[in-house]
Amino acid sequence: MALAAAAVAMTAGFAMPQRTAAAELDGRVIDVYAEISSSSTVGSDGRLWFDAQTSHAGIPSRPDPLNVPIRTGVERVAGLDLGTVIRVTGQVMVTDPGERAALVMFGTEVEIVAPAQGVFAVAAQVREDFVERAVRLPEPGAGLLPGLAVGDTRAVTQELDDAMLASGLSHLTAVSGANCAIVVGAVFWLVALCGGGRTLRVVIALTALAAFVVLVTPEPSVIRAAVMAAIAMLTVLCGRPSAGVGVLCLAVAGILIADPWLSATPGFALSAAATAALIVVAPPLARGLARWMPHPLALAIAIPLSAQLVCGPIIALFSEQQSIVAIVANMIADPAAPIATVIGLLACLAAPIPPLADLLAACAWLPAAWISTTATVSAGLPGAQVAVIPGIAAALLVAVLSASIGVVLSVDGIAARRGVRGISVVVLVVAGALVGARMLLTGPLVGTTVPEAWAIAACDVGQGDALVVRSEQQVALIDTGMETEPLSTCLSALGINRVDLLVLTHFDADHVGAAASVVGRVGTVLHGPVGSPEDTRLLGELEAGGAVLIDASTGMHGTLGEASWKVLWPRKDSAAFQAGNDASVVLEFDGGDVPRSLFLGDLSATPQRMLRDQLRGSYAVVKVAHHGSADQDTGLYDLLRPAAAIFSAGVDNDYGHPRAETLALLEAAGAVALRTDQQGRILIGMDAGELVLWTERAAEPAPAGEPDDSGEPDESGGPIEPPDDPGGVEDPR
Questions:
Q1: Where is the composition biased (Acidic residues) (predicted)?
Q2: Entry pTM
Q3: How does pLDDT run across 133-164, given as a tens digit for each residue?
Q4: Rounded to 5 degrees, what are φ and ψ at 474?
Q5: Alpha-carbon distances of 82 from 16, 79, 85, 501, 656, rounded to whole Å
């Protein structure tokens, strides 16, 4: 261990001069020459993201030698395969010291300097041929099949990706260590079936493993599994099979010596932990479960259960959701994964014979469809996920629950002690009671947790917008946030099954990321300017689900129940603001027990100043622009004079929203600050001409030495005096 630690320190030390030089480029627009070192995935921003190793970086046309890993996002172009040398122009940002990539680059221009050569070029062509063949198959399953077989996740939709995550099946979305084991085992068995000796079996299995790693690209989990499989094969070749824990530790130590930054990669940590769980935890769990069921069934349950118990605390460090249905979903879906992988790889190898390749791809589609359907159905079950605040506390809580489950189900070692078992039973009973109460409050009893007389709701969807306006049981949803689960939870709590008017202010992921979850339940879509093919695809899905699409522009108006709405921005066919934040749809609502309210999207100060001419009178409620960023127009809020200002932001978000100066600006305008990051879901209604407020949580107290003079009511709700003239104003048009 001392030698391994010293070697890791030396590797990190040798890399520091180059990483320090890279840090000096922070915030600059530069040219980078690099070789792509990973597969590419489509990010939430629509860019194609991949890892690369730089050779030169610096001012455009004169970059200096620099050798560091970099995470790069560019517009989608063909040919960005593993081993391709590229030149990218764009802005770079330095990362935290513990991150594997020294820089993150937002590319504006990309040029292929040298395409992939040799085996990398062959692997890229094989992948492309298989992906093209797979996506011609029907859904569900077509988009998932390339990920199961060759690690290409570009065809996986955001909706399916969310479902895989919610159901605990995300490890199947792309190639992982399990696939390496499947390939090695299948080749080893096939050679043995043909009469090959031990040496021949090991050599061919190692060769197949190397080819497989090149085909699927060397991701962290694949590297770990490949190294471990190679060591295991060598021990077989030497006639001295080693214990699994020893092989795993040797593999992990060797990988971390070669690349210490993998230690901070969640995928690598989860991969190693899951493997350790299968070696250490699964056997005693299987023996314990065998008390109540046949041993083969007990083993089948113990494998996904052990991995979930060990990986749960790690996931809780960075994830806001914990899957409750993961164990059952894995039991149902996991048997199909080896079939899809092996047949999918055979389809790749059969590419020179198209009819055979098509037949094999169709055969691999069936298990892929089974996995996809399992994910979708299990993710849609009530209480499939539990929201947690990621961090050490959440990890410790999940670890206690995981340990308790393990103790109760096992029969060996410490689990045999009566006191330990009794404590574990108590922990699980308490946890079960709390989960049951939550399911009741978000299911049959959901109506008891929400007051009836609300007209405006701000959903707590993290760093994003999702606001609801209701009048006479008709509902408008303004943006959807990024994640499906928080939006679905909020709409369920509010008793909303159908959206009459969906407003997509603009197409940033934090405003439209969860829009797919309401497809088929929307009457009309009012949207901002379209800026990319992804935007068009999303609108196409909504239209196919029965929605009527309207391209919003200034002057449009309509009704929602007894309330009226009016579009104040953007201007039609504006050359200055074509798409994005500054072309956000700005809506005004008024009448029918809906307080006069204004929703500003993500406008910056410049369009805010131009918007002033569209406004008449003050507003009772204002959704502050861009989550409360610092880029605000003071004159606009002086003109609006809102009684309540809604800030839709995520807890401890990286942007510092809402900014202190913006909070002070709204306070100076006379508004009460309502923050989803502190108060959760926020509801506003009208009672005898006064605003009435309900919040899911109490607001955080003001810092010591600063008076809390916000006038904000507690959780039970209370009145807020509206501004002068909160009523409707005749449309000057």
A1: 706-715, 722-733
A2: 0.61
A3: 888 888 888 888 888 777 777 777 777 887 88
A4: -95, 145
A5: 25, 9, 9, 44, 36
